[in-house]
Design the sequence.
């Protein structure tokens, strides 16, 4: 059939994409840089007739939102699903081109995978919509014939209206980010200041008076999964309540909104990783127990760990101390869960993966995003060195501005100008700490410069010109993340 389809449609057919259901055959093909979805038989693909194959109509059409919805309805494995407590990895795709490379990295590993993952912040910076993120994953899954199933994560949602847009697009996992409501300075407030802040919390949402909530914790000794006990004295309670109280009530409101607007089953993740102050075991305990008491259910939680989880580079900090601290968080999770411990800014944290896998077992989720964009840029350095040089110099100019909303510490003076490098040296810049972070945090500026004409269109053209180079770069790099997680 593939040879006949190729002859009839003038498309190079992706063999793995050819799937027949109910006497209809769906497929994906490529003509030059343009990809098209096709249907053999009676159906609703929006496009044009290409002729007949064995007496059946053949229709080919663009990779449009309408056609993605048709494919998802006909082939349910191209639509996202809930993945529950399975050990998992989230693979963000800022360009909408990486899904085939992601699938090649994860296929056969036993890890559950999230292939549609993007935050509202990232969508704004890349000027993509939730529907575009979802559709790119669907067509990538069809291209690779990935029938195992995948998740979709509406990442770092901060506002109620964010929920409406992402539920409409079909996302299944919703990562609530109440970080704006975390009071980091609670770590240093004295008792009087803590008491004053405490009575200002939203006790209507807590459903208790200030005295009643305090009575639940102060003086209590909670037995943990490992047999140890967690004790709340008044100051420990007040510090935890002031620091995370508003974050708890905000999460509750977001969860209740999800229950109102989600069209079908959904899952929740809670993330406080993008804050200045590490989450203590007592704070993790109070946060989780209050969510549980207030009827919130969740599959993963991302505390703010000790050390530095900067973008695009390995963990910075004392690994032994991280292991001891992480074990405490796992102990809380096993006491109040089960739920997964989620590692955000998980890209390239190679030194912690084995620690995380050993201590959390299967109850772990690692989230990556920017690293796949960086590997796309590495592929561009091979495919179109001239374009890479322009992007590099632009990133050097933009870094000091664009780094403002990221946890990074690169020194831009240590990133060499493109003119000082040979073509053969360009891909290796993606292994350099300073260049990697500079290229990471400037992705939004790169993709939107001159309304996309300066770099975006050319970057897409390069990656589409040699998609196998792109997929290979992503597959190699993501496998480095996966292997420590699945090792015995």
Sequence:
């Amino acid at each position: 059939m593939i040879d006949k389809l190729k002859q009839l449609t003038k498309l190079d057919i992706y063999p793995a994409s050819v799937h027949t259901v109910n006497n209809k055959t769906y497929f994906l093909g490529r003509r030059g840089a343009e990809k098209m979805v096709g249907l053999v038989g009676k159906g609703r693909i929006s496009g044009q007739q290409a002729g007949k194959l064995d007496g059946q109509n053949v229709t080919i059409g663009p990779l449009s939102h309408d056609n993605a919805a048709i494919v998802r309805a006909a082939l349910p494995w191209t639509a996202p699903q809930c993945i529950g407590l399975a050990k998992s990895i989230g693979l963000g795709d800022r360009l909408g081109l990486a899904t085939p490379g992601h699938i090649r990295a994860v296929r056969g590993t036993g890890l559950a995978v999230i292939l549609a993952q993007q935050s509202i912040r990232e969508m704004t910076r890349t000027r993509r919509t939730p529907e575009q993120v979802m559709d790119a994953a669907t067509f990538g899954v069809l291209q690779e014939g990935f029938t195992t199933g995948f998740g979709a994560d509406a990442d770092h949602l901060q506002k109620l209206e964010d929920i409406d847009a992402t539920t409409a697009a079909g996302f299944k996992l919703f990562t609530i980010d109440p970080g704006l409501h975390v009071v980091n300075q609670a770590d240093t407030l004295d008792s009087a200041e803590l008491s004053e802040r405490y009575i200002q919390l939203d006790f209507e949402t807590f459903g208790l008076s200030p005295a009643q909530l305090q009575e639940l914790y102060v003086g209590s000794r909670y037995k943990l999964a490992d047999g140890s006990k967690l004790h709340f004295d008044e100051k420990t309670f007040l510090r935890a309540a002031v620091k995370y109280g508003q974050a708890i009530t905000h999460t509750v409101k977001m969860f209740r909104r999800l229950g109102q607007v989600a069209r079908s089953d959904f899952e929740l993740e809670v993330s406080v990783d993008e804050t200045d102050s590490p989450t203590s075991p007592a704070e993790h305990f109070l946060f989780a127990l209050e969510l549980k008491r207030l009827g919130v259910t969740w599959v993963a939680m991302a505390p703010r760990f000790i050390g530095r989880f900067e973008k695009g580079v390995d963990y910075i900090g004392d690994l032994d101390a991280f292991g001891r601290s992480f074990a405490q968080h796992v102990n809380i999770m096993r006491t109040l869960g089960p739920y997964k411990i989620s590692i955000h800014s998980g890209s390239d944290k190679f030194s912690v993966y084995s620690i995380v896998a050993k201590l959390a077992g299967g109850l772990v989720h690692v989230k990556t995003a920017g690293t796949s964009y960086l590997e796309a840029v590495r592929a561009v350095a091979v495919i179109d060195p001239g374009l890479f040089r322009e992007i590099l110099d632009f990133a050097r100019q933009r870094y000091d501005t664009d780094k403002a909303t990221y946890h990074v510490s690169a020194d831009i003076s240590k990133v060499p100008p493109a003119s000082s490098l040979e073509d053969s040296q360009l891909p290796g810049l993606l292994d350099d700490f300073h260049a990697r972070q500079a290229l990471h945090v400037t992705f939004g500026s790169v993709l939107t410069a001159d309304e996309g004409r300066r770099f975006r269109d050319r970057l897409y053209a390069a990656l589409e010109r040699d998609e196998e180079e792109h997929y290979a770069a992503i597959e190699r790099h993501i496998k480095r993340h996966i292997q420590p997680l699945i090792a015995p």
User: Anything to note?
Assistant: The chain has 19 helices and 16 strands. The chain has three domains: 2-74, 87-183+219-370, 372-479. Residues 2-74 form one domain.
